[in-house]
Amino acid sequence: MQIVFLIMTMISLFFLTKNILSSIFNVGNYKLQKKRLRQLEFKNEIDGNENELIDKLTKPVISHVLPKIKIKNFEEIEKDLKFVGWNKKFTAQQFIAIKVITKALAVLMTILFWSNSKAFAVIWGVVLFNVVGFLLNNKVESKKEALIVEFPSFVRITHGYLSANMPLVKAIEESIKFVSEDWQIILQQFVVDAELSGVEYALENLKETVNIFEVKEFISLIKLTLEQGGAAKEGFDKQADKAQQMLKSAELRRIQKRGSLSTIIQGPLLLCIMATFALPIIDSMMNLNSM
Fold first, then answer.
1. Is residue 2 part of a domain?
2. Nearest CA-CA partner of 171 in 183, 157, 189
3. Average pLDDT value for residue range 153-171
4. Which of 7, 11, 40, 220 has a CA 20 to 30 Å removed from the CA of 190?
5. Domain count, the chain
């Protein structure tokens, strides 16, 4: 058991150090990039194998465990998975089943390592217990942040086309090629919805797809302007300055987030360095006391 514990500790320290150094220095792995380029040729086959594996792994939990669990935020999970594109890999039920499996593994790992190291057991337990939900939440927040940062550009470009007396749908269609990839996918869906079901439905679906308060407020104002017989340009005129303020707020939040992450990463490293330098002094003091 001690050998297993030592091996797990060394593996954990290796990956932790590697991730910290990669985050700080932004080091790229050339061999890994080449490997990923080769893997793109077999993307469809790999995706199929992943989906099959997820289905086999989660099917027993979905059949026997989930019916006994009351899931409160099922619709929110579905929206989040769709928002980040994870719905292509697994359903909301499969995602919840994976959370259940990792929580069970967390309890098992805690029990397994408790007798050797309580601290190590607690760390592994906490990480495994929360890792799946944390990954989804982090992905959602990262994508929302990216969309907010690019939102003022979308408003500015579309406003320019509207100022040339171009219809709303046509203006958004023309702006697609100038916005980020995330916004391109969302706006392409808007154009399709507008052509098939009308502008009102397209705006409502756009609001639900993005699910960001500032963007939803903006779209609601556009809808209200159109319903009152005004032009879409009026709504964009009113929101132009507000969109720039959104960009400033998003950049400020990003700076604060990076500062917090730097503190979290560098704090333990600084404590370890201080402890390393302090050990000889402490040892000398203890030897003096023993004399």
1. no
2. 157
3. 86
4. 40
5. 1
